[in-house]
Amino acid sequence: MVMVRYVVGTQDCDALGHMNVARYIAVCNLAGSDMLRRIGWPPGESNAGRRYSFAAVNMHSEFFGEVLEGETLETAVGIDTIGTKSATFDNRIYRTDGTLVFRSLWKSALMDLDTRHAVAVPEDLRNTLSQLKLPAL
């Protein structure tokens, strides 16, 4: 699991005065990219000669609370499941008091960036990802 802090700014909010939907996705994407860098699979770069990267193919999101400008959020990202050619990322955004405000599961195909096709998740990546589960809600 990787935890990333984020302070909601004016630019993150919409006309309704709360954080815009697009920012939730962007914050989760930043945390997921950070997680992949930390485990040695930086998005868009090589790992042992393999130019593989995850690409989202399906997202399911739930909002549990309104987020306002100035709030500090903590984004946790981990792995829900690992398939043959995909992994489902579990993205959760919390207030600093631990209150869950957003959760999004992203099924992502592992793509070979040279052939632009999905590939099987290599065993070394599978083993690393399998250690990144978040606690059950």
Features:
137 residues
Brief synopsis:
This protein is α+β, with helices and mostly antiparallel strands and 137 residues long. It is built from 2 helices and 6 strands; from the N terminus they run E-H-E-E-E-E-E-H.
Q: What's the structural blueprint in terms of helices and strands?
A:
Blueprint: E1 2-7, H1 21-38, E2 52-63, E3 72-82, E4 86-95, E5 100-112, E6 117-118, H2 123-129
Antiparallel strand pairs: 1-3, 2-5, 3-4, 4-5, 5-6
SSE string: EHEEEEEH
Give the overall average pLDDT.
Answer: 95
Helix content: 10-25%
The proportion of strand residues reads: 35-45%
Task: Please describe the biggest sheet, giving its number of strands, its sense, and whether it closes into a barrel.
Answer: 6 strands, antiparallel
**Radius of gyration over alpha carbons?**
16 Å
How many separate helices? 2
Q: Got a strand count?
A: 6
Shape: elongated
Give the uncertain stretches in residue-range form: none
Give the terminus-to-terminus CA distance. 14 Å
Structural class: alpha+beta
